[in-house]
Amino acid sequence: MKLSQFGKQLSTDSGIVNLMEDLGDAINVNPNLLFMGGGNPARVPAFENIIAAKLRTIANQPELLHKLIGTYQSPRGSEELIAELVKFFREVCGWPVSEKNIALANGSQSAFFILLNMFADETAGKICFPLMPEYLGYSDQGTIANLAVACKPKITLLDDKVFKYQLDIDAVEAVDNVAAYCVSRPTNPSGNMLAEDEVLALCELAKKRNTHLLLDCAYGNPFPGVVYDAVESFWHEKLITVLSLSKLGLPGTRTGIVVGPEDVIDKFCQINTIVSLANGNLGPVLLTELLKSGELPNICEHIICAHYKAQRDFALQQVQEKFAHLPYKIHQAEGAFFIWLWFENLPISTQALYEKLKARAVLIMPGEHFFFGLENKDEWGHSRECIRLTYCQGQDVVEQALAIIAEVLEEVFTLGNNA
């Protein structure tokens, strides 16, 4: 088959495609797998009950039902939802926004596909990812080869078992030919929360370079708020914030929200309309109802974040018990719903470890995929020594899977040390 550059670029092997294949296999084909890999949110019954009640209300009101299934949205998205978001962002976040600062998308993944390619190409420059490791779903989104350029973090040891990635702003400033900057907060895969001064430093660097910072808050504030310590959301003239309903517990609605400068939003809407024609209706209708009722902040804090915090605490306790004899370090788990483990001097790559665990019916995410865009990546052993685990599954699954992971790691280190 003869393909265009676009076809070649987007149909090669991809970490995100492999991740979604494993996710689909674990959820839909082979549910006996112990799934510790993908980013599918947990089932939170209290939240599902709220959504079920909203759907019953919609089904019993013909006008609402028609909005759900019988109309196209305008290019910017649901005007009713955007009006509610303006009130929410102004009152809850203190953002000086109007309707012209907001657009909807069919999920944040497709929003980033538009944004990344809107800014970067062979002439405009590359997307700079200031803090590796970073979300693997960005790595293959470019319609050109080598869209990304990335920076190593500073690694701070908080104690003998806990570490934290921190921004190396000097390394970021040294990167030339930058079309835009992009970072997630909290960071997928590590659960790292960039400090406010780190985000503001990136915003000011973007301003100095006459570009923008894309801030992915799919797990963060102002919603769904899977963040375990109090942090502020903020507005900056060069900041483009992307939100999602997926990690709130609505991944099937495929709803993303882009908040930024008016000129960026205008261009985004034009491209999104050409690519998608119109956004889906289910997510916007549900979010409108949650905003109108005033339920959203309580749902985020007392249902969603509380659930994941309890899951995190259980998973950390299990790691401490089952990995006590292993040479591991764990990234400070500040947000999202992942554990990021570092096995210094691991005798095999984490891709090889992934294959061993898959043979034992446990799925993890090998860390190699999350270190894209780095110069001389292969020379940095750390990039082959980390794995990502989710704690979205039931506690019985988490406990059983961590026991198997510990067994396999003990075998790997024993064989490696005896080689």
Would you mind describing this structure in some detail?
There is one protein chain. By secondary structure, the chain is α/β, with parallel strands linked by helices. The protein folds into 2 domains: about 10-45 and about 300-419, Aspartate Aminotransferase, domain 1 (Alpha-Beta Complex), CATH 3.90.1150; about 75-295, Aspartate Aminotransferase, domain 2 (3-Layer(aba) Sandwich). The chain has 13 helices and 15 strands. The chain has a 7-stranded mixed β-sheet with strand order 2-10-9-8-7-3-4, sandwiched between helices. A 6-stranded mixed β-sheet has the order 5-6-11-12-15-14. Helix 8 links the parallel strand 7 and strand 8 (about 215). It is globular and about 65 Å long. The protein starts with a helix and ends with a helix.
Could you tell me the number of beta strands? 15
Computed CA radius of gyration, to the nearest angstrom: 21 Å
User: Number of helical runs?
Assistant: 13
Distance between the termini: 46 Å
CATH superfamily of the largest domain: Type I PLP-dependent aspartate aminotransferase-like (Major domain)
Give the structural class.
alpha/beta
Give the overall pLDDT as a whole number.
92
Strands side by side in the biggest sheet? 2-10-9-8-7-3-4
Give the helix level as a range of percent.
40-55%
Low-confidence stretches: none
CATH architecture of the largest domain: 3-Layer(aba) Sandwich
Strand/helix succession: HHEHHHEHEEEEHEHEEEHHHEEHEEEH
Main pleated sheet? 7 strands, mixed
CATH topology of the largest domain: Aspartate Aminotransferase, domain 2
Shape: globular
Overall structural domain count: 2
State which percent range the strand residues make up: 5-15%
Task: Give the CATH level 1 class of the largest domain.
Answer: Alpha Beta
